[in-house]
Amino acid sequence: MALSSRHQDIVALVAAAGELTVEALSDRLGVSRETVRRDLARLESTGHLRRYHGGARALAAPGAEPDEERPFAQRMVQNAAGKKRIALAARELFGPEDSLFIDTGSTTIAFAEALATRPALVAITNAPRIAATLAATHTHKVFLLGGAYGADAGESLGPLALEQIGKFRTRHAVLTIGAIDAHAVMDFDLQEAEVAKAMIERADRVTVLADHSKFERGAVFEVAPLARIDRLVTDVPPSEAMRRALNEAGVELIVADAE
After folding, report:
1. Phi and psi dihedrals of 7, rounded to 5?
2. What PANTHER family does its record include (predicted)?
3. Which of 76, 53, 55, 75 is nearest to 64 (CA)?
4. Is residue 259 predicted with pLDDT exceeding 60?
């Protein structure tokens, strides 16, 4: 691959994803990490992207700080293509008559849109938008949890929601997260973390949907140790260190195919 062509590919990949690690770019392009680092240095010097330690960000979409999370409306449009790929890959993991908890998040909303065309399922969610999406086909049985309304993400939270989760038992919990490192999955909001933890306690298997921006970040509230997660579906391969941590914890890693 000619250098100029590879540079164009790097800029396009970073622009589409918002940010990508050196490891992910190396895997996608089939070149060494050192080559990617040299390319990123040159592209930053020419004003095409912004480097950070271990990767690069698009100029128009700077990443959030490790201890911050963007407003939900911004998260809905951030890496929409990657989240759609995650949703389509995750859809294939569930069959007729499966029962699922689904929590609130931009990626689980994409998942609900993909899942709507699948055979009949039972879904319990704290997100009115997810409930409406799944109920629109008239094939799924949908339960919407009530509680205090969180206006930013449009979700039910608090003690009433937690009490209602305790009335169900499902085969699966499908969750989004705010961050993931080598030890745990985490969230930035206490009430959202409590909902996710309650769903995990009442489900046999746990599937986490997380795009690449969540990897090797930290957040204040732990949702679950890695060992409690059965499957992780993402859009870009994580770093080798993260892969090792997932493997040691027994987490099945599923990387969605590029479109």
Report:
1. -60, -40
2. AGA OPERON TRANSCRIPTIONAL REPRESSOR-RELATED, HTH-TYPE TRANSCRIPTIONAL REGULATOR SRLR-RELATED
3. 75
4. no
> Strand 203-209 and strand 231-234: pairing?
parallel
CA distance 84 to 107: 8
Instruction: For helices 3-17 and 80-91, give the axis angle rounded to 10 degrees.
Output: 80
* pLDDT at residue 196 greater than cutoff 60: yes
Are residues 188 and 152 located together in one domain of the fold?
yes
Instruction: State which residues form the domain around 15.
Output: 3-57
Cβ atoms of 131 and 144 closer than 8 Å: yes
* Whether residue 112 sits in one domain with residue 208: yes
Whether the pLDDT of residue 65 is over 60: the answer is no
Residues 249, 121, single domain; the answer is yes
Q: How far apart are CA 8 and CA 133, in angstroms?
A: 38
- Are residues 29 and 1 in contact, defined by beta-carbon separation less than 8 angstroms? yes
Question: Is residue 132 included in any domain, yes or no?
Answer: yes
